[in-house]
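Model the whole thing, not chain by chain.
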Amino acid sequence: MTTTTRTPSTGASGDGPAQRQPRLLSGSLPRFAPPAVLVAAALVSAGVLAALGAFSWPGTAVLAAVLYLVAIGALSTAVENGRKAKDRMVTGVVYICFALAMLPLVSLLSTVLVNGLERLDGYFLTVSMNGVTPSMDAGGVYHAIVGTVAITLMAAVISIPIGLFTAIYLVEYGKGRLAKAITFFVDVMTGIPSIVAGLFVVALWMMLFGPGETNGAAGAVSLSVLMIPVVVRSSEEMLRLVPNELREASYALGVPKWLTIVKVVLPTAIAGLTTGIMLALARVIGETAPLVLTAGSSAVAINWNLFDGQMMSLPVFIYAQVRMGGAINMERAWAAALTLIVIVMLLFLAARLISRFFAPKLGR
Amino acid sequence: MSTTDSSTATPITQGKRRIGDVVFANTARGSGVLILLILAGVAAFLLIQSFDSLSANTANFLTTEEWDANTRENPAFGVAALAFGTVLAAAIALLIATPVAIGIALFIVYYAPRRLAAVLGYIVDLLAAIPSVVYGLWGIGYLVFQLQDFYVLLERYLGWIPLFAGPISTTGRTMLSAGIVLAVMILPIITAMSRDVFRQVPQGHREAALALGSTRWEMIRMAVLPFGRPGVIGGAMLGLGRALGETMAVAMILSPSLVISPFLLQSGNQTIAAHIALQYPEATGYGVSALIAAGLVLFAITLVVNMGARFVVARRKEFS
């Protein structure tokens, strides 16, 4: 299958009048060679494994990948040259890397979907665990959804103003050392481990209210520590996208700086700001570690009060159920995980849609 | 904006100090300062609250392996085993994730069809959106069973390497499992960073390489990778920071023990973050304070790693 373009002589011997090719172009593999080799590699490896009585999908995939790399390398060395062979092998490696990344994503989503659907229904979403013993075939996540919504909302109420104003400072006012320090430490703050944010609030609450005080507000504060830097970073980027001409036009009309920011800069960037905030929400809504420390992990009843008593949340619910370890607990954990993923994906999707449809038309 | 030149100011150019401007500017600056205060507060409160247990500790905090802190009398605890486990798990994750992430970034920027590239990048980002507790659930409820066969093979053929020495754990709840899940979690971080720098490689460099007759791989090796190296290193360090501090996935997957053990296929080891999450609900006596001390160590480690990463990335920005 590779002789057609190899050398002028073979071309001539092939079909009648010679289509003479310039010597400069040495042989090259036809376009269909890589996929063909891949299919062949897959079939051979499946066949070999089946013959050995050890057939399995992962085994076939690994063997096929190795076989493909060897085969395409050998083929290309024979027909083309060593450099091109290397190029083709690297191409194969790069494709394999991407497939490797897809593997866990697909596996995780499908596992959660399959296992979660077993228990996820209207009942599961609308009852709490109040009065349900761990191994009873009953109970649901309503209290955890309530807690997640309440805690996340409070975290948002704390973080959005602080984050947004900091971004405004950095973009509109910030010059000199303070702005540099803030930029640097916001970056550093994005790397704070979530458990440390939880410990921080534990330490703070111990000083303010004495030891052992757990409530939803503490959880919200710890989530804010994680959320603020994310909001700052995304808002800052969005505000920097606002063209300077808009600001200058506003100043030229005699509008004060703060009104320019409120009436011109923010509305122009509103879609991007919303997107950033939703992505920040999607990030903190799945945080578990700080909530285990601050909001408690044993609440079973519906609790809307952020300032009194333990508060369950979806991620902590999953963790607590896994810790209990029974079959029914795992079912609950999978169903709650599915609920959580659906919420996160909805936030993610909404963020993308907002940024796509409401982005300012910058033109040009 | 244009009126700050006070020495030569005339009434015409001297802007009026509007009350709204002053309030707004100070609110903005105040928020920024508040963030600095919060960060300082994190360090300060952890220091203050850990002081109690550290001064009562009868063992060396940095070199002791066991954790006997849930008492009021003669607590003896240390982070040696925990710190080792933390670094080990993060190192495994980094070793697995970095090459794959570079491959993915190259794929998205230089190999994938242009139209597909954005979608593929978005799909990789989805990996970052999945909560860590779900990774933990997936790891303990699915992945460890799948990996068991692989571990058996690994021990049979590579068991002579001390890292993979048997007898392997029958549950699969080992350091290697935790490391693999962590690798998946930090993959999108390193990928995003690498993708960004690979995209910024000057077109002139790439076209020059291609014009000299290099293949795509030679172009990447000679033009893209040297230019992108600081970005990849920065991304890897950010991923390292995340892996060091990751709690839930490790807490759920690893079957812990407080010893320093280099055997990746046996149960054992524990990370600081997971230890805190597991111990906190049962902590009594000096327990909470001791856990806060452990958290302080974790905070310090991640702070150094993250600052290093930011430094590397920022330096690249100045050059390009």
